[in-house]
From TrEMBL:
Listed name of the protein: Response regulator
GO aspect biological process, one term: phosphorelay signal transduction system
Upper taxonomic lineage: Bacteria, Pseudomonadati, Bacteroidota, Flavobacteriia, Flavobacteriales
PROSITE patterns: RESPONSE_REGULATORY
Gene3D superfamilies reported in the protein's UniProt record: 3.40.50.2300
UniProt source species: Arenibacter aquaticus
Keywords, alphabetical: Phosphoprotein
Domain of life per record: Bacteria
Every Response regulatory domain range: 5-131
Residues spanning the membrane: none
Modification type 4-aspartylphosphate: residues: 63
Amino acid sequence: MKIQTICIIDDDPIFVYGTKVLLNYNCSFGSTIMVHEDGKEALDSLVAMVNSGEELPDILFLDLNMPVMDGWQFLDEFTKLSLDKYPMIYIVSSSIDSNDLEKASEYSMVKDFIAKPLSDKVLVDLFAEIEAEDASNSSAK
């Protein structure tokens, strides 16, 4: 499975820039990177995509600490959407609070909690894991 679209929901321009650079050099990634600076902006955009019949991003990289609507508020609202298929959500945070890790595990759509900063190795491993999971799901059919 080639990841075509990734949505970065984070208000830190340095993190966003670094993540874009890493993604652009990764062969498992397609071409589209969406960026939103807060959860409300992202939620509005994703709801508009659903309403217009557009395909949602394959992956969301979600920060927890943002203005307007934080990552937890975003997740609470996003889970209310009735979708056939949800994107894979990876919380990417500088928080190392065990309560955040535990809370993240309560959301079935959250695949993992990744500590900032993202590195090339983390992305390579993440994409390899997705490809392996996709391959095993395809062979099970």
